User: Which sequence fits this backbone?
């Protein structure tokens, strides 16, 4: 049977990855709590042209104020299909009137998914198609299916390939990055224990990771669920809704605004800036196991 991926032109999003018929991706609107409420409607959105929140959801570009909602607009727009082969799906979002009213730059954003047996490679490419320098943020937000009871009982944990003595954790205040670091929750400098309370203060955000390979594991079964290689991405976000049956592992190039942000878009930390005609590409991979 092997592996099968499904993607959508809405958001240019991965919506399913089945290994030997077993679903690995959170199924969005089809997954509800005991009251029939959807936990989280998405699967694996791309975050562009910002990651996280802006202060007051506003930013200043060329002296004008623009509103961009959390994680940007790309995840909620219709992409054009570029290529759709069995193991290679690619979509493009091109700037238009809607995007220009929120982010006054001309661009093309390509979301590409390449499957190699039980490995899935996420590839993102941004091209500046305009005539001025273009700053942007970029991130990914895949949600991986897990067992709710095992999470509540604290059976899941994340383990880095090597010790991470230089890693540190950002502290979020109402979705903005605070001035102090959060408590370092690494056990033996390489393990993060997860349970039903892990995300009470929003996402866990890490920076300073040196060896960017992390695995999600279950100590009850002794199995590795997946391994992610996010080489080339400076941040890792880890998130779920309290009690929800998924864990998001999110490679990011940038983060939310700092609490003391000037609101000037080009001065946001970690922005990528492309000259006219330039392009930026980055990728990460996830290897799944049953």
Assistant:
């Amino acid at each position: 049977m092997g592996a099968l991926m499904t993607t959508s032109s809405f958001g240019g999003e991965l919506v399913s990855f089945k290994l030997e018929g077993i679903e690995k991706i959170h199924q969005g609107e089809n997954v509800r709590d005991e009251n029939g409420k959807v936990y989280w409607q998405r699967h694996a959105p791309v975050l562009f042209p910002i990651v996280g929140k802006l202060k007051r959801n506003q930013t200043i570009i060329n002296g004008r104020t623009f509103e961009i909602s959390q994680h940007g607009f790309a995840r909620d727009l219709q992409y054009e299909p570029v290529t759709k082969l069995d193991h290679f799906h690619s979509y493009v979002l091109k700037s238009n009137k809607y995007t220009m009213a929120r982010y006054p730059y001309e661009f093309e954003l390509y979301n590409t998914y390449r499957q190699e047996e039980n490995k899935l490679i996420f590839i993102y490419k941004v091209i500046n198609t305009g005539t001025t320098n273009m700053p942007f943020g970029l991130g990914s937000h895949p949600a991986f299916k897990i067992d709710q009871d095992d999470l509540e009982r604290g059976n899941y944990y994340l383990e880095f390939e090597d010790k991470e003595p230089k890693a540190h954790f950002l502290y979020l205040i109402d979705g903005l990055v605070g001035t102090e670091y959060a408590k370092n929750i690494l056990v033996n400098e390489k393990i993060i224990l997860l349970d039903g309370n892990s995300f009470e203060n929003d996402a866990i955000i890490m920076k300073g990771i040196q060896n960017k390979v992390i695995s999600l594991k279950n100590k009850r079964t002794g199995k590795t669920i997946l391994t992610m290689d996010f080489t080339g991405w400076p941040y890792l976000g880890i998130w779920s809704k309290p009690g929800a049956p998924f864990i998001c592992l999110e490679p990011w190039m940038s983060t939310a605004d700092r609490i003391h942000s000037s609101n000037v878009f080009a001065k946001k930390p970690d922005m990528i800036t492309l000259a006219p005609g330039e392009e930026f590409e980055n990728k990460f991979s996830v290897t799944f196991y049953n």
About this structure: The CA atoms of residues 89 and 113 lie 5 Å apart. The chain has a mean pLDDT of 95. The chain has one domain: 3-288.
